[in-house]
From TrEMBL, chain A:
Key words of the record: Membrane, Transmembrane, Transmembrane helix
Biased composition (Basic and acidic residues): 114-139
Organismal lineage: Eukaryota, Amoebozoa, Evosea, Variosea, Cavosteliida
InterPro entries: F-box-like_dom_sf (IPR036047), F-box_dom (IPR001810), TM_Fragile-X-F-assoc (IPR019396)
SUPFAM superfamilies assigned: F-box domain
Protein name: Transmembrane protein
Organism of origin: Planoprotostelium fungivorum
From TrEMBL, chain B:
GO BP field: protein ubiquitination; ubiquitin-dependent protein catabolic process
Pathway assignment: Protein modification; protein ubiquitination
Family according to the record: Belongs to the SKP1 family.
Organism lineage string: Eukaryota, Amoebozoa, Evosea, Variosea, Cavosteliida
Residue ranges of every copy of the SKP1 component dimerisation domain listed in the record: 119-161
Protein name per the record: S-phase kinase-associated protein 1
Amino acid sequence: MSFAAESQRETPGDFIDHDLDRLQRDMYCVFGRQGTISNADNTNMKVSIDTQLMSDDSSSTSTEEPPFVQIDMDIASEPIQHTTMEPTIYRHQNPPSLSFSSISLQLSGGRKSSKADSYRKQLEREMTRALQRKDRDEYDSSDAGQRMTTDDDRMSVVNYHSDSPLENLPDEVLIRIWSFLDPPSIGRTAQVSRRLRDISYDIPMWRDNTIHWMQNKTQGLSLDQLHRYSYSFFVRQFVSFRKGEKKKEEEVKREQKVLRDQRRRTRASRIMKAASYGRVWEWICAICVVLFTILLVLRLQDILQCAWSIVFIPLFFIMAQLLLAPTLYDAFRTYYDYNFDTELEPDEEQNRVCGPIFFYLAFPAPLQVDPKTSRCFIYPSVTLITLWIILLVLKLDGTTSLPHWAVFLPLIITTFLWSQLPLWVGGFSSILSDSRRIDRILGCSVILSLAVFLILLVLKLDGRMEETWYVVMSPLWVGKGIFMMTPIFFTVVKLWVYLCGCGLTCCRSTTRFFSHWGTLCVTFLGISTMVLVPLLVFEILMAQLLQGIAHPFAVVFIPIFVIEGFILCGCCVVNCAFLCSD
Amino acid sequence: MASESISVTTSDDQTIQLSRKHAQMSQTINSMLEDSVGADQEAIPLPNVSSEVLKKVIDWCTHHENDPAPVEKVKKLNKKREYKAKNSTISDEWDKNFVNAELRVIVDILLAANYLDVKGLFELMCKHIANELKGKTPDQIRERFGIQDDLTEEDKAAMRKAWGATKNDS
């Protein structure tokens, strides 16, 4: 074999004996023999090893074609500091030790020892790298890719533009590194550069990595099975696994979002409870009502000489609460897009004892069921009542000269609005289709009687009507009469239907009184005795008072106190029961 | 066996003494020693290893001289090449400090370990680089390792097609 290297240097005289010695030694390392340097002067160098590769290794080599290595090199530009054999070792030196302008490497081998083989491969690799660097410096990238072939080893030279230390590593080493990666990481590194992509498509590595990865991730796939499949199978497998992983991630994210929302909702409901929906607020409001009544009586009796606005302070507080509660709820509801049906509802323990608390029943409950209709009723009525109270206070204090009808107008509108309420519960569509029409019409008429009373009251106060106060009050009594007569009427109808045995289905479809007869009777009776009868007494007394019979105000208001007493006692009993059961 | 100490000549022409035990951890030197049995005790040339890197390698060998020899794994799956995805965690604290170096040094040590055929060190360096690669996006890898993006858009599109939607995530 022969090893020939011709060198051309710009700075003559650098090529010293020392370098030649090194060259000899390297050739010894590579080929196991010392070569002879036949032509070495200042500008050219020709080195040849005139013996066959590992000719002393075995006798059988002589019969084969002698291994042949030929390297033609033009060494230019940089002065040679070391031998041409080791471009890799000195590449970090500055300036680079050598550069090739062209290189062709031919290796044809007979039998070689593994050591020489590995050295030779290394040599090929390093020269290829050196060539790439050289090409990058001097030529277009299109010229860079060259192909080198050896008899027993094929090696394609691809142009990789990089000075990265990673690029200096041979493919085997890179694949070893890659073998420590999991498939997702391989996928990502494949996108880095062309060379890394090519590395990443090493099938055995891919397969083993995927198998290992899947072994850690899943069960149910046997190795023998996997062994037979191709690269695309593993890519598909990986993709499907990845999708599964993604699904899991999404699930986790969803769960986290739900938890986060839950936390935010809990916080919001806590704020709402603290601001208006707590039981404490109901107590305060109830006490405010009592306080207002007492103040009113004192003011009417002229025991208290303060302005009317002070008397109405408790009412203002209640109105503020009534305004705040639905606004707060609606704001949170819109913001979180969540209706807080479980959060605001009093917990079950409480529920069993006393039922839903008033504020919940008044605002969130209707807003949950039918937000649009409920908003139409709640906000106007609360605002109008507040307006009425303000106007009334102004009127009573004499600050404004508005006529009575103007002062009472908001309240009249409110009552008309409320009179529609029984019809509208459950939305517009239920007006016609609802089966409980009779109940609703009854409720409607009761509230309408209140509106009629208010109109009469205004007319009387403005002096446009000369009737007595009894007449003015009469609509209220009619309304109460209707309300109290309802259970009796339905009971009679029920008995009649029961006795005659006809028209039952018709009645069932028009009122729910028959299905809930017992409960409704008790409810009506309770309301009648606890609220309506005292109210009736109060109204009669009031009418008498206004007609000129001199009752003291304290006596007139006794029924009202009775009602409030009932309510407070009821609350107290219920709360005590609740506390005891706790 | 000859003396306990072996001298090697590195690429920058320094002669370094190392004990026979350490030298035998390198399969390359080991086989050279076996080849030159009976020959004069001359310095072994290591033209691919600089003295700086060799010192690092010797450091590692000193620390791991009492480690059990790596067990040859049975090539069960693939008879031709045994690439087995392994756990890439570096357990040894000393090793963790050892790999905590500049990337260029790491790569030099890796090349030296490959050349000298020191299995443990080679594995360690591979693991370290693998760890560096793990969990990084392509951009981060390019930045970390100073690699230029020479993939064309068609290459990327082809890869995306082959890999499905999983390519675009990080």
